[in-house]
Amino acid sequence: MSKLTAKHFSNDPVALVNAGLRAATFTNPSLHFDPTHKVVSLRSAASQPTVALVSGGGSGHEPSFAGFVGEGFLTAAVAGSVFASPSAEQVFRAVEAIGTDQPDRGVLVIIMNYTGDMLHFGMAVEKARAAGIKADLLVVGDDVGVGRSRGGRIGRRGLAGTVLVQKIAGAAAAGGASLEEVRRIAGLAGDNLATVGASLAHVHVPGRQVTADELGDAIEIGMGIHNEEGFGRVTTTLSGLVETMLKQLLDQSDKDRAYIQLSPGEEFVAMVNNLGGISVLELGAITAEVVDQLSTTYSLRPSRLLSGTYMTSLNGLGFSITLLKVADKSFLSLIDAPADAAGWSAPVQPKNWANGIDTSKPEPSQPKSGSETQSSTPSNLQLDAQVAPNKLRAALKSLIDAEPQVTKYDTVVGDGDCGLCLKTGAEAVLKYLDSPAATASQSDALRLVRDIAQVVEQNMDGTSGALYAIFVNSLAAGLQAAVAGQSPQPATPQIWAAGLKAALLSLGKYTPAQPGDRTVIDALVPFVNTLAETLDVKRAVGAATQGCESTKGMKASLGRSVYVSVEGWNSCPDPGAYGLVKLLEGFV
Ligand SMILES: *[C@@H]1O[C@H](CO)[C@@H](O)[C@H](O)[C@H]1NC(C)=O
Question: Which positions bind substrate (predicted)?
Fold first, then answer.
């Protein structure tokens, strides 16, 4: 059973929370931090619009909520320790300070529906009222994971959708709305909001004892942002997971849920929120899946799509999906309104949303296989069509046969992909040799090399692919330069040697590798030099073999092998050099 990862950069939860809150004042200099009450507030609160917004809750949900303090958003945020509500005293101090700094001030406190928060924030608001402050409380419960019947007395919890309610409230307040009006519009947003989360694992709270995570391979749907239990566990794919989650958000026949109803064409805001530990790449894949399924299953297209980190559960390996129905036309402009808060990311300008997102699914075109290569322009450099293509075929087959050995070597000293990369390239060139384009080129050396360069470029990736593509392209240029005059002439060993030398020189412009660096260069350089000196292919291949042998035990100073420290060095040649030797051996 997997254990929660307990490795952190900061292991003292008290220091961690304080440092995190201080950091909010560095990333947004318009903020002030009061360490006594753990309040982050706008320095200019007194000169802000009449209605001020206060929020807060346990720490561990950053950027919620200190990250949303800023002009056009929250006026202050009160933080508890990790996953624990701040005290009523802390909240009261924040509400009192802001509630009395303007004569007509109104303070709307917007919190999530958690027992501790309800008690402490509720008490603080009552105290503030008793002290003559115009204060009101709005509680957000957007969770649909735990349905009505099971929710029972616990009710709906607040999740990432809360941020949208606060954004709408903040923009309304910035526009000069009254406390009643801000509360009305924010409440309407809360009533048209639904969120569901899913997590791969529980999170470890810094400083706490490490326990086993009994979740194993399962995914918990509806896990709360404090590790609390949700709807249940499933073992499924991303697509199956998103299907279940969207059903919980939208299925009208689910009487236990059906909190919001969206019909095709209706406007809504979608938010895909990272719970803290999902890679940005993976969040992108999740977002694409959500948009695709909304479109295909429900004929729904979000008017705004927010994908990023808004409310976390520490480094939670999970995400949540929020849907906000545009129940009032102003919702979109309030979401679009600028907000000077470091945690808010809605970087796309409203005008660019006007045409809506394109939910059609483009399919990538197939890469050109070797057999579709277009023959390049003819030259006067002749080749023996009876011999050359067959020699090349034999060489490519020799390389393909060597793939398992190259892969074996590369698994020891590299990342294991070299063999397949070479094999893919060789197979594509073989395919090309059987195509009509090759028939046109097989008696024209320059044309053949140019065609092969195209095939290599289109079919080989990775470092080897790039090196071979540069080399073959440069070989074409080198051959061209070595041809004197216009009349047809055979591609002599001298011309090939001159072309290869030029290609080697060219390759040197893009890779710093020298013989001795344990790369393909250790075989390539002796081959080209010996061929140039002796014009004898057999001897040149012999020199390449020797060069390759010399890489055994050589310490890598370039390429991926640098990062691998293994015992296999001594018996293992450089896989790239080995592959080249196998290719060259096929020629003789
Ligand atoms: C908050 O939870 C309580 C139960 O503790 C529930 O009665 C109430 O409806 C919930 N509020 C919201 C806004 O979801």
Answer: 58-61, 117
Helix axes 575-585, 462-482, angle to 10 degrees: 50
Residue 250 maps to a domain: yes
Atom of ligand 1 nearest to the CA of 151: 4
**Residue 549 clears pLDDT 90, i.e. is over it:** yes
- Tokens representing residue 117 in the block: 């928060």
Which residue has a Cα nearest atom 6 of ligand 1? 155
Residue 541: give its domain's CATH number: 1.25.40.340
User: 282 with 218, same domain?
Assistant: yes
| Contact 351 CB / ligand 1 (< 6 Å) | no
Q: Is the dihedral of CA 243, 212, 151, 136 positive or negative?
A: negative
Quote the ligand 1 centre to 144 CA distance (angstroms). 12
- Name the percent of the chain lying above pLDDT 90: 76
- Tell me, using a 6 A CB cutoff, whether residue 154 lines ligand 1: yes
Place of tokens 């075989």: 523
Tell whether 59 is in a known binding site.
yes
Specify the higher pLDDT residue, 88 or 441: 88
Q: Return the residue matching tokens 């002749």.
A: 382
Q: Are residues 28 and 87 in the same domain?
A: yes
Judge if the beta carbon of residue 153 lies within 6 A of ligand 1.
yes
Is 117 one of the annotated binding-site residues? yes
- Given 37, 202, 204, 226, the catalytic residue: 226
The reply to whether ligand 1 has any atom less than 6 angstroms from the CB of 152 is: no
Distances (CA, A) of 429 to 393, 423, 443, 474: 9, 10, 16, 17
> For position 1, what pLDDT does the model report?
47
Residue length of the chain: 588
Angle at 487 between CA 483 and CA 490, to 5 degrees: 60
